[in-house]
User: Fold this.
Amino acid sequence: MKYVKPLRLLGDAWKTKPSVPGRFLGLDVGDKYVGLAVSDPSNMIASPLSVLLRKKTNIDLMATDFQNLVKSFSVSGLVVGYPFGKLNNVEDVVTVNLFIEELRKTEKLMDVKYTYWDERLSSKTVELMLKPLKLHPVQEKTMLDKFAAVVILQVRLLVLRRLEIVCLVFLPFSHGNLCYV
Assistant:
C-alpha cells in the first residue's frame, strides 16, 4: 500500500484510466470493526457496503477481503477516515495507524493507494440519524460503522467533485497538472 495526498488519489486514478477513473472504498476504522463504503462508478455517491470484524489474528483474512473488493469493484484507492481533530485522543490515531501498518505488512495490497480523510463528526452524524429508529444495539452498531464510512467517503467525493468542476470551468488546461497534484 502506498500513501498519497488526498487530491493526488483522484489525479492518479484519472491518469491511469481517463475514461473511467475507478471507484473508491471508504473505511471507518475502529477498535473492533471496520465499516466499509464504496463509491458508484462515477464517484458521485457513496453507499454502505459491509462491516468487517477486526482482530489481530484475522488481518491476513481482512487483507484478502480487501483484495477481493478492490478487484470486484475496480477500486482505484482507499479513503481512510482519520481522527485529525482528535489530537488529544491518541488512542484513535494509534488505532488507525496500526491498522494501516498491519495491512501494509501483509503485502497483499501493494498496488493499492490510500489516503486519509477527516472523520470528525462522522459517527456523531450517523448516531443522530439512527437515534429516532430505535434499533437493537447490535444492529445500531453495525449501521453506525457502515454509515460512518459512507459519511467519510461522501464528504471526500463532494470536495473532489467541486474541485473538478472548478478545474474544468476555470482552469480547463490544467486537468492532471495543476488541479490534481
